Amino acid sequence: MFTLVAGTGYTGKRVLERLPADDAAGLSRTKIETDWPFHQFDFDNAGVLPIKLPEQYAVLYTCPPGGETDERLQRFLRILPHRPARFIYISTTGVYGDCRGALVTEETPTNPGSRMSKPRVAAEQLLAHWSEEHGVDLVILRAPGIYGPGRLGIDRIKSGEAVLRESDANPGNRIHVDDLASCCIAALASEVPAGSYNVGDGDHRSSTWFSDEVARQAGLPEPRKISRAEAAQEFSPMRLAFLASSRRVDATKMREILGVTPRTPEEGIRDSL
Description:
Elements: E1 2-6, H1 12-16, E2 24-28, E3 38-40, E4 57-61, H2 71-79, E5 86-92, E6 103-104, H3 118-134, E7 137-143, E8 145-147, H4 154-159, E9 163-164, E10 174-176, H5 177-187, E11 195-198, H6 207-218, E12 225-226, H7 228-234, H8 237-243, E13 248-249, H9 252-258, H10 265-272
Parallel strand pairs: 1-2, 1-4, 2-3, 4-5, 5-7, 6-13, 7-11, 8-10, 9-12
């Protein structure tokens, strides 16, 4: 089935380039370097799509929310010329909010606590109503921190930026970008049940451990460690908000139904350097 990748950024471009070039196309706000078909598209202002879609198609939507109620997504749904068979939406595990380190599954109620996560819940709810009304199979992939080439934090390590000391650090949740791309491709298959899927590598070692491992594999000194009290004076409000939320994401459903076995963090870091 033809796939329209709406948003060809860090993750979307990787998915696009793993699909058959004659059966996929991407929409990008800016020009991208790729041999696959793509069209520049202003998600916030365009009134029509720059591509004629076949009768049967699927959508992979990777764009960040536009506003508290995600007006960007609302506009995109309005201008679709006809309804897709499947709609894949990349959300975030941040929709669960702060769970104080508890294990969360897809059955855990959403309880977003940050301004970054609340629009994601609004988008999920919007898509749930829209897909039910129009008979579209909806798959929501709730992703944790995405890392990979160019996203290991090496520049921060080199600059001497601090990390929390291990005793103050929360459990970690992450996924390599190519494993997330594999989840997206698996979710496009018509036999995969609609619904929400947590995605992640299942390794809950902290972001402090991860930074130390990146430094070790890159041959750099370990980042300096500071307490939470010191971090309150040094870290940005956005970073502090991220560190205030703690959970352990259960991605069993991803492994069993999507059939994706993600790489370990050690493997992912090695593959990304």
